């Protein structure tokens, strides 16, 4: 069984916006690039989304995204957009400080 992997296209504008929000809220951001994984000679493929890990004091948030329209908090059951993310991060910062 042969497995082919290629990088998923990153949205640098979205990542820059999230990075700016993190810097204003004294948070650290780490980006893990996603992949498209294909099993050769089959019709099976997997999409591993991009992951952004945000650390604020003792809290860690995980945002996964495929593109700017599909952002999720922790898993695909919790959709989130930039405004909700910014509000959440401000709330966490104010609660912790």
Explain briefly what this protein structure is:
The chain is an alpha+beta fold and 97 residues long. It contains two helices and seven strands, in the order βαββββββα. The chain has one domain.
What keywords describe this structure?
97 residues; alpha+beta; four-stranded antiparallel β-sheet; three-stranded antiparallel β-sheet; 2 helices; 29% helix; elongated
Structure commentary:
By secondary structure, the protein is of the alpha+beta class. It has one domain. The chain has two helices and seven strands; from the N terminus they run βαββββββα. The strands form two sheets. It has a four-stranded antiparallel sheet with strand order 2-5-6-7. The longest helix is centred in the C-terminal third of the chain and has 15 residues, at 82-96. The termini are far apart. The mean pLDDT is 89.
Task: Spell the H/E element sequence.
Answer: EHEEEEEEH
> What is the straight-line distance between the termini?
52 Å
Structural class: alpha+beta
- What's the count of strands? 7
Shape: elongated
Portion in beta strands: 35-45%
Radius of gyration: 15 Å
Any low-confidence stretches, pLDDT <50, length ≥5? Answer: none
Widest beta sheet: strand line-up? 2-5-6-7
In terms of topology, how is this protein built?
Elements: E1 3-7, H1 12-24, E2 28-32, E3 35-39, E4 45-48, E5 50-56, E6 59-67, E7 70-73, H2 82-96
Antiparallel strand pairs: 1-3, 2-5, 3-4, 5-6, 6-7
